[in-house]
Amino acid sequence: MNTILFLLLTSCGADPVVLQGDVVGSCAYTSPFSGEPECTEFYGAALAQAEEVCAGYDVDLRVGEPCAVEEVLGTCTYEADGYQVRTTVAGSDGSKCGSQRFGCETFARGVWTPAAACDGVDEIVVLEDPFPLPEQVCVDPLPGEPAGASEDGEVCTWQIVSGATEEGRSFSDYADCDVIRRQRPYSAAPANPRADAVDPRMEDPAYAAEVDWVRDQLRAGSCDCCHSAVAPDGPAVFDADFEGNLLNQFNDRGLAMGAGWIPTIGFGTYLPEENNGFERSSPEDPYLSIIPTTDQARMMAIFEAELEHRGRTIDEFDGDLYGAGPLDAQLNYEPERCTEAEGVDADGVLRWAPGRARYIYVLEAGATSPTVPPNLDLPEGTLWRVDLPREGSPVYSESVTYGQVPDGMFQVHPASGAPPALVPGQDYYLYVTADVLYPISRCVFTAGEPAPSGCSSAGGAGGFAALLAGLALGRRRRRS
Fold first, then answer.
1. For 101, which of 66, 112, 157, 336 could close a Cys bridge (C-beta 3.0–4.6 Å)?
2. 413: Cβ–Cβ under 8 A, 6 or more apart, which residues?
3. d(CA 113, CA 2)
């Protein structure tokens, strides 16, 4: 085989990737994220590395064999853990090209090369069912339940992943779980196998009471929608309705998140006074539990005790700073320089990569990337933000001028008046997204200067290239 198999020169979003050496092997599978058939080739990887990634998809590595895909939407090429990967996405439906490009550039931080089926149709756009924004729902309590704490005895609940209803009630009774499952990917997943064993600790009434309290806290939060019997395809990893020891369903890393040993700020949170007394990990206090609770000290102590029971210590999780997976990847994204396709020109006209925008930000250089409401979507350093109403039509590049609210959109920040003028020669951060967690362009530009030549910077290069492989491995480890 050739020593240099493929030079990626035509794609935007990252530096060209040279695939070097012979192919170690490949594996074909159905992507657990997109549901589409894919085939991944490995270059420069140890055989064990490639086998482990393929095992994460429940398939075997075909040693020494490249992918053989007849109908191709495109390829995603990236580097991971010192080796190179090329994933070929199978299919002929060009309407899926935009989402495939998004996954490659945003999560794998790779280089997307569209095939002929994607010619001119791989823009990133959300036209139907955009992210449901937070809505506070106030209803009468269920028959037989006490009056609610809100006006006229109603029970008020924020209908969002970060929300919780009143303590002692079930979230699914007071909010629409279909909305919650549209705000985060949901799929059924098995619990830790140790959950099937009889746990003699449940014979201790005090211990069992603590487990039941955790169960009730989970039911009061939106966890009820995906981690209980109301989940349409079955619970994801843990089940609040499990009759045995609920805590045994968690893997060790999940327990560490519950104990606050691993920060989980990327999920977003409300202040407890806005959320029926429930709070979770936040940028202001990152080492709180991932589980929204009315008593953080009690919740963390219960999970710490479980970790101690398994012989685990906090030192083993030292340096593990990213508990929210892809949400953390976006929150901690470090933008590169804008390319000629992106930026804000001397007349204030905004340009972004192929895609249509629902959310547009101009921020100070160095600002944290905006992600999820309610507390991570308007970071400090935001100079200007405009949003599209849910039923509005997304806007095109070069149709927006800084400080001028486009027809059909509305200004979120500043709350009133014009944003501060951009200072020529000063750097700023342009962040344009097709929806919440769906970025099109996110890059640094210099006001008053032409952008450098190049293509899209929506993905960037390096840094988080191994995320997709890591997520696949995570799926396998939950089953083992």
1. 112
2. 378, 382, 383, 384, 385, 419
3. 21
Polymer length in residues for the chain: 480
Within 8 A by CB and 6+ apart from 203, the residues are: none
Alpha carbon distance 328, 308 (integer Å): 27
In what helix (H) or strand (E) does residue 440 lie, and over which residues does it extend? strand 438-446
DSSP state of 190: P
First to last CA, the chain: 36
Specify the pTM: 0.79
Residue 123: band (very low, low, confident or very high) from pLDDT cuts 50, 70, 90? confident
The pLDDT score that the predictor gives to residue 323 is: 87
At 120, is the pLDDT very low, low, confident or very high (cuts 50, 70, 90)?
Answer: low
The tens digit of pLDDT for each residue in 186-195 reads 888 889 999 9
In this predicted model, what pLDDT tens digit does every residue of 452-472 receive, in sequence order?
Answer: 554 445 543 322 223 333 333
For residues 443 and 14, is the Cβ–Cβ distance under 8 A? no
Handedness of CA 111, 114, 120, 125 (dihedral sign): negative
Are 118 and 351 spatial neighbours (Cβ–Cβ below 8 Å)?
Answer: no
Return the exposure string of 354-390: e unless at least 16 CB atoms fall within 10 Å of the residue's CB, then b: bbbbbbbbbbeeebbbbbbbbbbbebeebbbbbbbee
